[in-house]
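Section 5.1 Outputs to date
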Amino acid sequence: MTTMTIAVLLAAGLLAAKMCQRWRLPSVTAYILAGLLLGPSGFALVTRESLGGGLDHFSHIALMLIAFGVGEHLELKTLRGQARSVLWIAVCEALGAFILVTLALFLVMQLSGLQIEGWAGSDYLVLSILLGAVAASGSPAVTLLVVRELKAHGPFTTSLLAMVAIDSGLALMILGLAVSLVHSILGQAGSSLLLVAGNGLLEIVASLILGVGTGFSLDLAAKRFKNRGEILVGGLALLLLCSEGSVYLGLSPLLAGMAAGFTLVNRAERDVRLFRALNFFEPPVYVIFFTLVGIGFDLKLLGTAGLVGVVYFLTRICGKILGVKVGGRLGQASPVVRQYMGVALVPQAGVAVGLLYFLTGDPALAAYSAITTPVGLTGVFLSQLFGSSCLRSALIRSGEASAGSNQHLPDTCDGLTAEACVLHLKSTEGVSVPPWVGGKLVPFNAVQRVVVFAAAHHATAGLARLATIFAHYCHALPMAVRVQKSGEKEPALQFQSEEKEVAGMGYPLVTEMVPDISVASGLVAAVEYNMAHAVFLGYPPEGEDGQFQEMLEVVAENVQCPVIVVRFYGELHLERILVPVVDLDELKTVYPLVAALSAIGAHQLELLYLLPSEAREDRMTTERQAVLAWISARGADIPVKVVATDSRVQTIQDEAEGYDLVVMGTVRSQGVKKFFFGSLADAMIHGLQKTLLVVYAPTVL
């Protein structure tokens, strides 16, 4: 049952995350929503009762990994110039939330006429103080995940992670002081404020000492371990021992985990291999953890919390923002920090839940837990849903998010989301061909053969340009072919745009109307009759490729020349070209086209040679020398980059970021072979956000 539950949680969380990407919602929000749907507030497929605590250990593991990950970002070298502002802001925003929530709740409960049987005015004050103390806490978990999702990096991000780390310690101290104050208000014998503050400080110091000791142990272990597997197993064992040890001693696992990460990253050796190894281990744990958060929340609590819950949620946000403004001025923080940090601190999660459970364990405060728990959990739930989006927006607006934002979208995508922009740049409206600036090409004498391109594409000028460049390399002429279906009348200006493009490049255009009932058979007839060097076909706009695939298979199977498919994306540029290949056969397939493109104008050209991830350094060196020798034998000079990769698709997408055009080669495979083995080039057709040229080698050369 537990295994099935884990499978359901992982599948539901992942599916929800992919769906929420369309609305640009963070993955954390998606996981919680998935939990809500699975839990008692939704379809009740999974409940806390049915789990019976069987997955609680995932929560412990997740919290320790989150805390350790936050510690990685607390590097003293990067914090040195921001320490003063970070401390001022952290103290002010924590106190701001505490004070504002306490005052607002007390006034609202008094003015709204809220009456609880047997309660006096002091009871409402006690309730307000306790909830104010809980409001001071933040959410290292949500913060770290959103930062990683956006690949955010910079002074703002560093300050943010330092603040959520400090928040955990401040929240513990504020709650301790608040409980002592509450005991005094209730007239109960208790410890003095000074003693409570001392105990809180002692707990924080002890937690940090345990974490520092764990960090030194991790550093020592890392020196003994060599491969990633050993580092992951040994490091995880020490971190979990730290977590369980802190629980056993009554300390804070979060503070201990942060201190461990802080110690490891600030060592002179700065061995961060454990952080990188854990990055591959963490995602499923986080999905389960946050999905369980959603399952554990009952929407009925919103009704129970009522107006008090809403006021708690809103005034906590106001307190954080106001505290950041005040602390930012006192600490002389940058304008970006003062403007966006308050919004970034909206998320609230695990620390607050822990504080609420701490309150339920105090017999003197048991009478108040019936209100503090639903109100606090309502605030946590709303903060989880909306806080991650606020944090995401703050990171993007700060300019430090390198993924998932619209800041690098082309001007033609103004006002569109990233997903809508991708679809637009593949569409008829999004594809464009700038004027030719390469100067007039001079046709060769005694030209007899042609390079064919289909003249019925939405970017026919781009096809004409590419076909002309290749024709010039082959000492041939470009030829536009349009298949005239039976009964179709021939337009008067059939090839006007193609002729204009080719004439601008200095070449005459050969044209041919082929009467036929099938586009594929018409193209095959034109190519074979004219003994073409190659045929260029334009990939249709996204979502219109069903008939094109059938036509492509027929043409590729029946012509004796290369078939070059062009998938246009945005504005056509040919200056920066990436050529990914997996072996010399693919290089031989694409080389004539690459040579043709590189022969005209100035180019930045790179060959990306992809090897399996297990390839050793000596093999990479040998393969690179062989490729360079093959290229040199043809009188060319092309830079070669050899990469050992786990995912060819992902590597090509990452490498293509700095290029305008990608050229790939593939073999013609059909039926069972194509079903089982697929095609790397075909996989890139849909996923690559660059103009892509795919060369299909002929069956018989």
